[in-house]
Every structure is written in C-alpha cells, then in structure tokens.
From TrEMBL:
PROSITE patterns per the UniProt record, alphabetical: SOLCAR
GO cellular component: membrane; mitochondrion
Membrane protein topology class: Multi-pass membrane protein
Gene3D superfamilies, per the entry: Mitochondrial carrier domain (1.50.40.10)
Chief localisation class: membrane
Membrane listed as a keyword: yes
InterPro entries named among the record's database cross-references: MCP_dom_sf, MCP_transmembrane, SLC25A44
GO molecular function: branched-chain amino acid transmembrane transporter activity
Full protein name: Solute carrier family 25 member 44
Gene: ORF77425
Keyword presence, Transport: yes
Family assignment from sequence similarity: Belongs to the mitochondrial carrier (TC 2.A.29) family.
TM helices/strands, residue ranges: 7-24
Amino acid sequence: MGFYKGYFVSLACFAPNSALWWFFYDHYCVLLTNIVPVYVPRLAIQVIAAPFGGVTSAIITNPLDVVRARIQVEGTKFEQTVHQLWKEDGVWLVTKGLSARLVQSITFSFFLMLGYETIKRWSVLEEYKDRIRW
C-alpha cells in the first residue's frame, strides 16, 4: 500500500497540469504564429510556446503540487495538509517550491516539444509534406 501513497492526489495534480499545459501550448502557438514573421520556422514557434505553456500551467497548479508533495512525504489527509500548510505559510504557500518547478517545467517543455515535433515531422508521408508550414 505504501507504493500507492498519494496516488490520487498525484492524479488530481498532474491531470489538470497536463490539460492546462496542452491548452496553453496551443494558445501560445496561435498567438506567436500571428506575431512572428512568416519566415520563422514553425518548430521555433513550438519550442518557444511550450515553455510558456509550462510556466503558465506550473504557476496555476503549484499549490496542488505543494499539497501533493506534503501528503506523499508525511502521509497526512488532504484537509489536514492544506490546513497545516496555510498555518505555516499563509498565502505564500502558492510560491513554495515554485522556482524549482518553473526550471523543471521550462526545461522539460522545451525538450519534449523539440523531440515530439521533430518525430512528427519525420513521420509525415512524402505526399503531405508540401501542405505543412515547416
């Protein structure tokens, strides 16, 4: 059972983070596409939009991640953990561990999209390559 400690709170943190990440990644891709000149490669836009999406989603979900980490380390219940964190840090609980999370998110997002979009490009059939903005 110790293996699953904090499993559901992890899902409650990572699922919204992932959904927000993809939403903001797409939003920033569209925004950047409308701003940058046409000659800027699409991959450059994507590897810039990905960290922006990562930062935005990390900021929004950081309080959940703080609670998740505390539950997994101390084995306390959700309500008890939130109460204790609020008592210790007050409103500053939302910034706890944020700098490390942002560094991780920026790095992960950049390399994830660089790899993902590169593999996607390699996988496009020859007959469709002329229809894609590279």
